[in-house]
Amino acid sequence: MNKNAFTLIEVLVTLAIIMILVGALAGTGQYLRTRSGIQLTTSTIRIIDAALEQYHEQYKKYPFSNRIMMDGQNRPQPIEYTRVHLEADTGMTSITPNTTLVEKDGTCYASSIGLYYFLDRGADSKAMLETLSNRMITTLDAETGQHLKMVMGGKTYDLPRFVDAWGISLRYEYISKEVSAGNFYPYPKMMSAGPDKVFGTSDDLSN
Asked: Is the residue at 45 inside a domain?
């Protein structure tokens, strides 16, 4: 018998060690990708937040703040910004393809389109958007995968929106912020569904 040859047990032990190392490296890679996605998305939200402030400085209001409804205690109530709101606020006459503007989970992303539309029209806020990674902006419809376009004034334009590092549209809404005792102010909030791609869970990211 060749004393230099590996026994079956030695081969199996070696294979087991290799599999453990591969598994550990794969787990580390996934962790690093998740952390990188979180950092990129958080940075994107901060830039958009800064663009919102630039927009407010120029126009003395936030994008589609006219849609805010106040309750009996003068607190802003959440609204679901839909395609109907988007068309009315921008003046576009149609969107192609004829889609509902929803993610696969049923979340409407019209607010992300509307936010990009308005921020892109302010000089300073547009300058902030130009610093964003191209990865965080898309014109692809989540439902059909086709490029979204709008018709306005007889001309056709691309219809971009903000997404997070996992390809899910960012959500834009207003929350109630108490600025003094009993005095509430509608404050804009940007949100990402986070790595699990589901809104309303513990890994959501926001400004």
From this structure: yes
